[in-house]
Amino acid sequence: MCQSIIQKVFITLLLLCSLAAYAQGQTSVTGTVMEGDQPLIGATVMVLGTGSGTVTDLNGAFLLANVDPTDSLSISYTGYRTEVFGLAGQTNFTVQLVPDATDIDEIVVIGYQTVRRSDLTGATSVVKAEEINKTVSNSLAESLQGLTSGVTVRNGGAPGEGSVIEIRGAASFVNTNPLYVIDGMIADANVTFNNNDIESVQILKDASAAAIYGSRAANGVIIITTKSGRKGPIKPSFSITSGIQNIPNRWDLTDANGYAELQRTSFTNSGLPVPPSVGDDFDPTINTDWQEEILRTGNTLDANFSASGGSDALSFFASASHFRNKGVVIGRDFNRTALRINSTLNLGRITVGENLVVTDNNITRPLGSFDTGNPFFDMATMLPVIPVQGDRYISDTNPAGWGIGTVDAVSFSKNQVAVTDLLREKVNFLKLIGNAFVKVDLLKGLSYKFNVGIESSNDLAKGLRRFGVTQFNAAVRPSFVQDVRVDFGSLLQEHTLNFDRSAGNHNFSSVIGISDQQTSRNYTLASRSDIVESNGVPFDQINAATGESLAEGGITDDYRTIGFLGRINYNYAEKYYLTLTGRVDQDSRFSEDNRTGVFPSIAASWRISKENFFNVPWINDLKINASYGTLGIVTLGSWDWRGTINNNPRAVLGSIGVGSYQAGLVNPDLRWENRKSQNYGVQASLLDYRVTVSAAYYNILSEDALVTNLPIALYLGNLGGSPPVNAGSIRNTGLEFEAAYTQQAKRLKYNVAVNVTTINNTVESVGNQGEGIDYIQTGLTRSRVGESLGEWYLLQTDGIFQNQAEIDAHALEGNLIQPFARPGDIRYVDVDGDGQITDQDRTFTGESPWPTLQLGGQLGLAYDNFDLSAQFVGVFGNQLFNSVRRELDSYQNTNFRADVSPWTPQNTNTDDPRIGVATNDQGLVDNARFNSDRWLESGSYFRLRSLQVGYTLPRAPLARMNISSLRISLSAQNLFTLTKYSGLDPDVQGNGILERGVDAGNWPSSRIVSAGLNLGF
Amino acid sequence: MKYSILFLFLIVCCLSSCDDELDIPNPNQITNESFWQDGIDAVQGVNACYSTLHRPGFSRWQPMLYDLRSDVGTSNSPWSELANAISRFIQPNSNFGPVVDVYVDNYVGIFRANQVIANVPGIDMDETLKQRVLGEAYFFRAMHYYHLASLWGNVPLQLEPSTPADLPPNSPEAVVWAQVIEDLTLAAPNLPLRYSGADAGRITRGGALALLGKAYMQIGDYGAAAGALEFFFSGEGANVYQLTEDYSDNFQIFTENNAESVVEWWYADNPLEFTDQDTQTPNHNFGTSLAQFYAPPGIGFTDGEALRWPISEFEEERTLDDMRDPRLAATYLYNFTNEAGPDATQIYGASWTQRYGADNNRVFFRKFLNDHHKNEEGFRSTNNYRFIRFADVLLMYAECLNELGRTAEAYQYVDRVRARVNLPALSDVMPNLSQAEFLEQIKHERLLELTGEGHRFNDLKRWGDLGPQLADRDPAFNNFQIGKHELLPIPQSDLDINPNLTQNPNW
User: Fold this and answer.
1) What does the alpha-carbon distance between residue A744 and residue A101 come to, in Å, rounded to a whole number?
2) Predicted confidence (pLDDT) per residue in A613-627, tens digit
3) Does ipTM come in above 0.90?
4) Whole-prediction pTM value?
5) Cβ–Cβ gap B44/A658 under 8 Å
6) Cβ within 8 Å of B, A 817-836
């Protein structure tokens, strides 16, 4: 209803405006754009302040009609310095463009508008596609690691798994996912997105830059512009990269002999009979290296074919790509096939275009289940005296005889080889993202655009469980096959009016518009038990199974966001800049009273270098800016504010009776999360534009932060998960610094870029948690007012008791603080001074899961036809919780570190406490207490993220084969890492925002060595 | 001209109120506001209370906390943290999962009961049914607080449907017991004596009064307890209950809901289940996994097992025809479950000797296992848990009368229990016991009659017998500190959230 009114008004507006356009009368100009004596094809020629323009043809020539003799032209071309000049009545030009490595004048997409990079007032980072494509990665986020300041990325690792990305710190208790805008469509650039299609990436980091996206922009916005066609002959190109992949580190663990020896020591120390598995029945022929069984050499293949071209009226780009990754862990694979096409049809005043991507993504992995486990945990803890398979394990419940723990070799670790055999899943995501637009130039400088975007995804996860067990004492479940289908749809409709005008030194550009997005998701699950197998091959179709059938389904999401947006950019003589942005959003995910949010922002810049008094010859450009504004974010499900009845309980009586009640608690007063963001920055170009530096200070206050994982009291009897509540506020402040140096000599060209990020995260409020409580407790961490989010909150250890005298001395008023301790046990600090060690003795360890400093660096070097590049990443000052080492060093039902050196009266110079069996031994139980600082380790690292050498073949011999360019390259990813961390990889995703530093068997970053070929025709 | 167009555009933007298009109903579930409309809703509401009974904390771990922390059971689970927590008075920490699960499930049941108690009175429905539903809900709230008072003592009292911001203080244990008594007193008159058909298994007036008797006994008010229990002897319940002829009928699947059953937790098989979580899907486990966790090695996990010393107490008794007390074989699986010895003793289809060797001295709780009808266990045992049997009521009543100085009067109730298993009447073999001697005899009778049914810990507590001196029977009691281990620690996570809560003494 409301939509149709708006559309009618727009049609009326269009008619009015086209009439008005006839009233104007102007001249035409022609020209040619050259570099030296070469014509530049496809250079952009814009009439400043109007939004109208064209591109140069095969001869570098352009024609612009309806130009006012007082207008100014802007001629830009990627990789060249933009030229701006007034027409001053002249009608024919030859323009020389100069190559430019600084990109200061490149056109930057800022959402519904474009501006020159030099005219930016907000904090916007631009990342080049060529840097992104130097790494082989699952997702765009993974490729962005280290490439720009203020962006923190932690890798997922598994084939087809995304990364965690934070822009300017974690400002939410719930999620840090930025908004992705792909060619104007709001859609997630997850693993289904092909990085090779990227033309450029802009990251909007402050309120001024992001406010145009209002209620969804608080975690920052990543705008992706994909490649598009340029006017000119059809240019096909082809590239292929193929590599091998492995996990560079392994745990150093005891083999069967070493394990048996320590296990015998353990039981003997505890006065218990040695289990037969390491005693009388020890079988030296069984010596399983579980890491060897589970890890493998993976490989990657990335092939892309594209073609682009265009005429005056029509330009197009099309690409096809295939990416595949055989994972470094058995049973895990990913592949993606993508097709992309876009075209733009220019019909004078009307421009019509579309952008369409179809991707088919396939993940193979073990089916998630209670007994799936984690290969990076189990491969360390599983016992070497257990074989992968063995006759003695064959039983009714374990027909394949998978090696699992037994009564005399207790291990609850999952046999990961069995997991990949018994639990199988193939996931297919078929995804379509596209948008189409019509743009009408109404008046000089005034244009209207109607943009429709869709994202549609059909997911099918086919799961199969064969009959058998993967773990000692695991429940036996029947085999089954299941299909889970998810349909996702999102429809975006946007109407915008852009108005650009220059008058003398006054330059305006502005946009207003309406954006309406509807998103829905539903799922259906169907399964049947008791699968049929033939010669060991299971039939994975539901109809083939013979047991009980099961169906589930529902609409998991259905919501709509309607926004009214506007922005005015004004500058005076490119010296003084002012940007006003505002957005009003309404969102169905809140109750009517809380539905509307207002998100304004303001930014101002001053180009000091344009002032007459400024006369520093080595500073070419100097600009300072400041911004302030409010952003929002919804971190909720579609109906979280409304309590509902759960019909799943059942009364088991004379007959089974349906039970109904409100199982999950809700908070009806949910509101927007607001971010109040300040940004102060300075940018400069020095030494004839060879050096660019920029620095920014930001201060972002997140208010009404939603807490969805706030621990909820058990006495409430809630079973719906923690109800979200607007509980907290978090402040992130920090400095960002970027510097780049570029030298373009005749034969030697090189560039160096570094970026430095500091993020200081402070919890300002946790809402009403109760009298005297100024924190949120989450497992191993506490988020207390005045501290950072999720700081380690643990028991403090203080070495090892070397003798009984030390135990006796650890007393309060004559009572032992650790009465169960024996020499060789861990001493804990009685922080609360009550004479015993309890959870009340947990305290802030003073160590943080958050880095104090993050570094990124890029290096490029080219000599004649050879080129070399490198990317570095550094993270410093954070502490990780090594949960796998905790399991190993608990000594209970696990393999051991090869270098473990348990305390004995003769071996006192060690950090490892005494070894024994913990049953009925409180001392040993205490030694392995989970919530202690014994498991914290420095997570600092410095990594050579990528190293690439390339050779571009000389043009002349290729030209005879109609090849315009050919480059071959060799790359190595994650070649070396400097770190003291004892786990496999310090780059951990952690356990959500509030336990960011927990390494519970995190999937480590792979080392990838690859060779690539790029071919242009 | 163009400014007016812009102006028009802005007006359109501002005026188009799209609120109606932003009211998107939830198509998956009915909202709270639309529920609680009629009698069907009321019955479904109270049905949710019954669903708590097959949740894993309640049906698996809770019986273990009573049996294994007493002197008749222990745990040699390879999961050493579990063994320590549920049988050795060593909590790895106060958030330990299996223990916390019991606390949670009791509060889940309370949340369910509170919703019925708050919403059903306003429903326009059949008044008798309304009162019955409310009676059932009051019973469930009382029963869950009974367990919380027994295990944790000083717990927060939630008497209204929970809201996320509730920060109640602890209530002293005595206040929790008072609430149990108040709720059961409210429940009893509204509950029927019996049910039939589809309603079989719902809570009866006898069930509420038997639990009321238990609650009064735990706080030492034997007069009030006897008053509640008189229902079974001189009240309306006098002809409702009787002892089964065969003692073992009370622990087997073919003789569930029999004449002796006063309160019984029903279990059933749901072949479609894939989870124990009863709010996740209708396809959850309707059974209990207790049998899987108690069953002997090779069949189940054996996370809990029995201690051997009570066997000699059983062997003190001989039946009138000079046979062994038949309750011994019904209570335990061990090498002489069959008096002929380990070769003749069948353990799930194989002899004791075959499975464990003749000399293996371990003893396993047998009640509520499924060895009487199959040779394996699983997570879906359908064997109903008889929470309160009439035999228990008889022994409770006898204990009350003895405490009230009516020892002579008490004999007849003990004798009924003994007569069922053909033991000589106490009045014949031990006449004229003093009050103290009779209490000691009650302890013996309850051990033989009720071991492995989850009553032992509360019995020891009521008798003041919990303490390190029990270490002779169960070495775990070496770890028992008087004034601390009578109660479990309040979960630290709740203390972290709610500053009005305090930890139990000495934890």
Assistant:
1) 8
2) 988 888 888 999 999
3) yes
4) 0.79
5) yes
6) none
